[in-house]
Amino acid sequence: MSSITLPARCDRAAAEAIWPELVAALGNGALRIDGSAVEHVGQAVLQLLVSARRSGGGAEIEASPALTEAARLTGLTSELFEESEL
Amino acid sequence: MSPEEIQQIFFVECEESLAAAEAGLAACQAGTQDADTVNAVFRAVHSIKGGAGAFGYSALQAYTHTFETLLSDVREGLVAIENDLVDLLLRALDTLADHVQSAREGGDAPADAVLIAEMEGAMAANAGAAAPAAAEPEAAPEPESAPETAADDDEPAPIDDLDLAALLDDLTSDFSAGSSEPAAGEEASAGQGKSWKVHLRPRSGAMRNGSEPLLMLRDIAGLGGECVYCDVSQIPPLDSFDVAQGYLGWTFAMPEGVEEDAVRDIFDFIGDDCALAIGNDEEIPEFQLEKTAQPPKPEPVATAPAPAPAPAAA
Fold it and tell me: How many CB contacts within 8 angstroms connect chain A with chain B?
């Protein structure tokens, strides 16, 4: 299982840096994404995480309070954190 | 949800606002000084001020008030964006970060009298004065000085009051609804006392130059709005994903008492970069694939077992 760690500041620049990592991890089965250090997250990373969840073997995301709160604000809680039914 | 946890959320939002302001000022420094960029900085500081007032951090609130007033002058075009001003704003942001930290950790507020005097000196009403305020750095700041009052005319006090009340209401209601059964709670509260809907879809421009759609969503939530639907149907698989695109669309339910204009004001500065539709019969504006500088394809992915992603493998 591949594992990727999200930085504290998940802005658009971070999304650009993470995207190739996620693509490279495709095909290695389910992905583990460690978001426990996230303090700030924007739309660019949130939508990238949704894509990761829906691609390849899916992804399991560990969330920080900031990430949890952003998911709640944007209505993405179940999309991002519920157990995948793939 | 305990008060400590609610405050923790506030400080998370402070960090996001500080990051947005920093990005905006960095863009200003690099020469991007358009209305969107300045507005992003203004809104970030405004948002911290609102929370500071709601949680009783008076030193933080007083400081952000001065900061915001100066930014309001900049936004109105009353104060020109010059190198000295950007430098002042960057220093003011540093001290704002110190203020937030001292509020969070309960330490002494940072010494800000010199900066406050400098900021007041740079305000529109004082810029024409013979001696710049920086020449008398030890002068005690006048908290209720005339320029602030004048600038506040642009930003009527009732809006701030509404923000504060709505912020607290929103925080507490969210947590009581979400604590036990999030899904059921959301549906129930979405159906109760919500009378109109706002639909939005940020375009790629809403994610550039320090703009961040989530800050607008927070402003909607600050008015009492609640997300009832997020359209994720346009998000492509990873291998055809373009980081620069805005793929998400939202529907928020707004409380009956909120004026439509209050919501429109949030999106005023972003203009066409966020498609908006208001009304229960409306739908989320359609997705448009936009031309971006992003290369459409990543480097070919090796099928080899473990092309260990460089910095983050754990």
Answer: 127
- Contact B30/A at CB under 8 A: no
């805005």: which residue's tokens?
B246
Lookup: tokens for B83: 């190198």
Give me the residue from A28, A40, A75 closest to B250, CB to CB.
A75
Task: Give the Cα separation of B199 and B176 in Å (integer).
Answer: 25
What confidence category does residue B311 fall into, taking pLDDT thresholds of 50, 70 and 90?
low
Helix ranges (DSSP H) in A1-86: 12-25, 43-54, 65-74, 77-81
- Please check whether residue B265 is in contact with residue A72, taking contact to mean a CB–CB distance below 8 angstroms: no
For residue B267, pLDDT beyond 60: yes
Q: Are B1 and B179 in contact (CB under 8 A)?
A: yes
The structure's pTM equals: 0.51
Complex ipTM value: 0.94
Q: Which two tokens stand for residue B305?
A: 């077992």
Residue B302 above 70 pLDDT?
no
Compute the nearest-CA separation of B203 from chain A (Å): 11
